[in-house]
Amino acid sequence: MRHQTQAKTFEVEKIRKDFPILNRKVNGYPLVYFDNAATSQTPQQVIDVIVDYYSNYNANIHRGVHSLSQEATDKYEQARIKLQKHFNAEKPYEIIFTSGTTHGINLVASGFSEFLKEGDEILVSAMEHHSNIVPWQMLCERTGAILKVIPINLKGELIYSEYEKLINENTKLVFVNHVSNALGSVNPIKEIIEKAHANNAAVLIDGAQAAPHIKADVQALDVDFYVASAHKMCGPTGVGILYGKEAWLEKLPPYQGGGEMIATVSFEKTTYAGLPHKFEAGTPNICGGIAFGAAIDYMNQIGFDEIAAYEHELLEYATGKLKEIEGMKIYGEAEEKTAVISFNIEGLHPYDIGTLLDKMGIAVRTGHHCAQPVMDFFKIPGTVRASFSFYNSHDEIDSFIEAVKKAKMMLQ
Amino acid sequence: MTIQEKQKEVIEEFSMFDDWMQRYEYMIELGKSLPLIDEKYKIDENLIKGCQSKVWVHAELEGDKLVFTADSDAIITKGIVAILIRVFSNQHPSEIIEADTAFIDEIGLKEHLSPTRANGLVSMIKQLKMYAVAYQTQLN
After folding, report:
1. Residue B53 and residue A27: Cβ atoms within 8 Å?
2. pTM, rounded to two decimals
């Protein structure tokens, strides 16, 4: 019954063969990797690109006269175009390579200190990751701007009516995640962006948790900035993107000084390079950027609609099975959510459950998920978080459920 | 009994178990059964902040021996805390300062002392030794 039509058309067994790590054993058990919201696994197709880069054309880019440098530059810039197309940016140079989402957020936050004055307001949601709160607090300290928080309800959804109340003519920037890392809730970013623009506020969306599941169209969203990380979408760590509208990127000051980001340098005056190089000081993560492009190709080949449908099926299946366990409490039951389940079992500490699951080869995250304000809201020290990807299977969920039951039995 | 003798005793106890599950069941048992600390000492000043589970430690001198009591909100951590207390408590501070924790590895619980584990145990051992250093100075 449970293997429905969707699962048959979605060839998960074939896809699993692309991921060598899924063959390994952990503590004597076959690995069940349910920590995809922390980082995703890498398919052979992407690993091959990394090996190919270091085996055949490793060179510094944008400056060499020699062939290897030219090849590497071409591949790197091709990757930028792949990302441009994927996120539907208007221009390739609106895609800035970063070291990851956190870097992108800090770049924008740092630049905004030039535009803010005392009394200006920044809105963030109550379901943000720590990396999304701290840069704004620092920005507020530097400029005298005020940080205001959009509250969430018990289902783990942003309260839109509260957002409407908070936004006003002093609001200069709105910052929310597309999808919450701790709860999986999908935020209504299109409405949020429209409302912000009606108040002349800019919007930065953190797409780190959304990008692996939802294809964001930055032009259709009319978003000012969108950030994401490669390592959550089958790519390597240490690379990500910042999308910014051309006009905004022109206006923002450079974030770091160094090679690559300059046009001319003298001790009297340095002029900055144009986009995207203005924000890409120093030698970038060349191989990472190219591999990110390959990861995007890989995921698009499978299809984001197909991925989303299959993951939703996994989510429903796992949620149903978990709810059969006595004492189960699931946090985050938004109408629209990605394949993330944050839960606790009454009377048990999430750390104990996570420890025993690991002994049975199951990788989950436990703790506050770097979202302490969310945990404070629910008045809990943390949760166990299982997050699924398109290469996970129903059988793995069955093993996970059995392991949770076993852990519960041992701990009670 | 010296710290080393106690460690040997714990190692022998754990050698009876065939697999991880028996070891963990035993630790969970230890965690559940032992009253480890007076509630009045479960205060923030005695809290060792691990990332995920809380660990409280209290130390006081009885004669020339240092007596530890401790607790944790996670049961497996509490089980290990119980083992550590059993080994290190009621010893002369100088013995505690010099003791190593290799026995944790030998009883198959090494993973809990990895710094990435963030369960407060690494900090707890550090704290036990710091108490020992402090009380050693007092004894001198």
Report:
1. no
2. 0.91
